[in-house]
UniProtKB/TrEMBL annotation:
Source organism per UniProt: Actinomadura viridis
Database matches in Pfam families: Nuc_deoxyri_tr2 (PF15891)
Protein name: 8-oxo-dGTP pyrophosphatase MutT (NUDIX family)
InterPro entries from the UniProt entry: Nuc_deoxyri_tr2 (IPR039470), NUDIX_hydrolase-like_dom_sf (IPR015797), NUDIX_hydrolase_dom (IPR000086)
Domain Nudix hydrolase: 228-385
């Protein structure tokens, strides 16, 4: 697709494909004699857009500056705000001609979405509160329109080509390895993404409500939320016993708020995720997490890979890369005397638990995913009851 910038004005239908999309949020003049800042913003975007494809600019002003249906306008803005890869908040507030009351509300709705930039002339009044939260959340800020536009385009880069329902996946999700891993699996199955909407975003964890055509069943499934987060690596440490049930297994206990276990803790093989997610090295992550949570440092050749699977396929797209190691009596004794570990700065505090496979099966503390990891590893190790 050749380089182009398309402006979509209020209540106009968006195109069906683009590489990037920007929404111009901010005060709109209501009187014809008051000039708008948006034509200058569009001109800046046309000049600065360096991507090789299509940039779509959503302008909530009517192309001919005529009166409009209020409800239709609000619904169009909500739709296009969700479609945008970046929302440019430029607030040249004038209390007499452009008080920006609606802008204040929109800022409150989107300021923590991870896809906003904020700009305002230094002399514009009543922006201190907005600027406070922009600074607090690390939102890119500028004091003029060219700088604000540049900040948005800097985060977009060259964008990414998307079509149809893909356009409803913003770049901050589209570019994550976890989304691409899930979407690649869906496409390989012949399924088509018809629609999507980010419903929440916390750090590198995101929830996307999706609408999908299921090829094998020739129907559309909608309404479910897919959680995207980095893959994890888990290490099952064991020492064979007289029987399968008497085989020693090492778990870690850690308080996690979602736990609904009898003691309020999770009990699972040591493991976790690392920066880079699915694009990182699962073996390196496994070794690092093992050392971090138990204090046991092993060379890479000690870990046996068992492949990867989803942990909770009805909710989350992430996978667990499972490894194992048969440990020595000395290593087991050292683990038995280990104190609390973890990264205190991240609120992590782990304690080693030495148990048996039989106790794991009979107890109710380890979740089914952990039971499955341990059982799979011990089965592959040839241990039998």
């Amino acid at each position: 697709m050749a380089r182009e910038v398309i402006t979509v004005y209020a209540r106009e239908e968006p195109p069906d494909r683009w590489d990037a999309a920007i929404f111009l949020a901010g005060p709109t003049p209501r009187a014809p004699e008051v000039g708008s800042w948006r034509p200058e913003a569009i001109a800046e975007l046309e000049e600065r857009w360096k991507g090789g494809g299509r940039l779509v600019v959503f302008s909530p002003e009517d192309r001919h500056r005529v009166h409009f249906d209020y409800v239709g306008q609000v619904e169009w803005e909500e739709r296009c705000l969700h479609l945008a890869d970046e929302i440019v908040f430029y607030v040249p507030r004038d209390l007499a001609t452009m008080p920006a009351f609606t802008t204040n509300v929109e800022w409150g709705m989107w300021h923590d979405s991870g896809r906003v930039v904020f700009g305002a002339p230094p002399e514009a009044p009543k922006n201190r509160y907005l600027l406070h939260y922009a600074a607090k959340l690390g939102v890119p800020r500028a004091t003029d329109l060219p700088g604000t536009v540049a900040a948005a385009l800097g985060r977009i880069g060259t964008g990414a080509p998307r079509a149809g329902g893909e356009c409803q996946v913003p770049l901050l999700v589209w570019r994550t390895p976890s989304f691409q891993q899930w979407y690649g699996a869906q496409r390989a199955a012949g399924n088509a993404l018809l629609g999507a909407r980010v419903v929440w975003s916390i750090g590198d964890h995101r929830g996307l409500r999706v609408r999908i055509r299921v090829a094998a069943e020739d129907r559309v499934k909608e309404g479910e939320v897919v959680i995207y987060r980095p893959d994890i690596s888990a290490v099952v440490l064991y020492r064979p016993g007289p029987s399968l049930e008497e085989t020693t297994v090492v778990l870690v206990r850690e308080f996690r708020a979602p736990a609904a276990t009898p003691d309020g803790f999770v009990h699972e093989p040591p493991g976790g995720s690392a920066p880079g997610g699915a694009g990182g090295d699962p073996l390196r992550t496994a070794l690092d997490e093992l050392a971090e949570e138990t204090g046991l440092v092993l060379p890479p050749e000690r870990l046996r890979p068992h492949g990867d699977r989803q942990v909770n396929a009805t909710l989350s797209a992430h996978r667990a890369h499972v490894f194992s190691a048969e440990i020595t009596a000395a290593e087991l004794a050292g683990l038995g005397t280990a104190g609390p570990r973890g990264v205190a700065a991240d609120g992590e505090r782990t304690l080693v638990e030495i148990t048996t496979f039989g106790e794991i099966l009979r107890g109710r503390s380890a979740d089914w995913a952990s039971v499955g990891m341990v059982a799979g590893v011990l089965a592959e190790a040839g241990l039998r009851g």
